[in-house]
Amino acid sequence: MIDSPVGFDPAELDTLLAGIRDRYGYDFREYAPASLARRIRSQMGTDPLPALSDRLLQDPEAFGRFLDELAVHSTSMFRDPGFWRSLRANVLPHLATWPFIRIWCVGCSTGEEAWSLAILLEEEGLLARSRIYATDLSERVLERARRGVFPLSAMKEYTENYLASRGTRAFSDYYSAGYDKAIFRGDLVRQAVFAQHNLATDGAFQEFHLVLCRNVLIYFGASLSERVHRLLFESLAFTGVLALGLRETIERTPLADRYDPLDAGQRIYRKARP
Ligand SMILES: C[S@@+](CC[C@H](N)C(=O)[O-])C[C@H]1O[C@@H](n2cnc3c(N)ncnc32)[C@H](O)[C@@H]1O
Fold it and tell me: 181 φ, ψ to 5°?
């Protein structure tokens, strides 16, 4: 039985989350309780929890919508420009010392982060010898990530982020506009892989020189978060770089002393000890 977020009957919540795990293979039992409870409640409407359980376990479409709500897909291109400035200035020169560069973009959502990375690598002359592995729990967002088609209405914000991150070209060089969509240049992700990977249940699958895991761990409870930190650490080559979201840190985790800060303010760390 898991700890119950305030306001739910622990047995009913357990039935829902164990049912989802058994039926669909997604394990949310170790997500941060308060945020989990908020999202479940928003899906319940006026129904009691058992009615929501029945609906989700019988209707994969309804579960797909629920999954999108639970997983929180909010993202943007060049999100937190200061982070991207630091990546360009402090991390890419280090990556350039490897003949072939493998990057894991964890929890990539609809792909804006992976496409931003590709643009950055292209501008620094590293794209041709890099491979980005962009993964997420949700196949629905990965489909969108692969396409690289984003709302035209978002381009004003993305252009501002790009310029603030010290982008070196006109941002519009990277996409063509069609009706209400911005269609990004397919060659940017020719060598990228978009694939499903669940941090709660899947293991390490490659050794990487850079791992971006931004704005994912904030949704996890302490023990899942600790397991994922271990997985990220195991996935990094010696002197490889870990980048977290601005509200996340390796401080106070059991692996903190294995990293040296590269830019602690931007949550960028280098694996310094095995
Ligand atoms: C808020 S988005 C972050 C997107 C991007 N990294 C960024 O910072 O803009 C969090 C993403 O983590 C994914 N996620 C949540 N739980 C996951 C898990 N167990 N395994 C893999 N991805 C997960 C969600 O599907 C969602 O797309």
Answer: -120, 150
Helix runs in 181-266, H state only: 222-234
User: Half-sphere exposure (CA, 13 Å, Cβ side) for 106?
Assistant: 28
How far does residue 107's CA lie from ligand 1's centre (Å)?
Answer: 3
Residue whose C-alpha is closest to residue 17's, from 51, 57, 61: 57
According to DSSP, the β-strands at 149-151 and 181-184 are: antiparallel
Instruction: Express each pLDDT in 164-223 by its tens digit.
Output: 999 999 999 999 998 899 999 999 999 999 999 999 999 999 999 999 999 999 999 999
pLDDT of 57-73, one tens digit each?
A: 999 999 988 888 888 88
**Six-digit token string for 30:** 């170790």
Helix H, strand E, coil C: the string for 157-175 is HHHHHHHHCCCCCCHHHHE
State the distance between the two ends of the chain, measured CA to CA, in whole angstroms.
35
Specify the ligand 1 atom closest to the Cα of 109. 27
CA distance 228 to 201: 10
Q: Which DSSP letter does residue 3 get?
A: P
Residue type, 197: H
Place of tokens 């609906």: 55
Q: Which domains does the chain have, with CATH numbers?
A: 10-71 (no CATH), 81-271 (3.40.50.150)
Given the CA of residue 202, which atom of ligand 1 is nearest to it? 20
Closest CA to ligand 1's atom 25: 71
Q: How far is the CA of 80 from the centre of ligand 1 (A)?
A: 16
CB 235 within 8 A of CB 129: no
Question: How far is it, in rounded angstroms, from Cα 4 to Cα 15?
Answer: 12
Token pair for 50: 């058992």
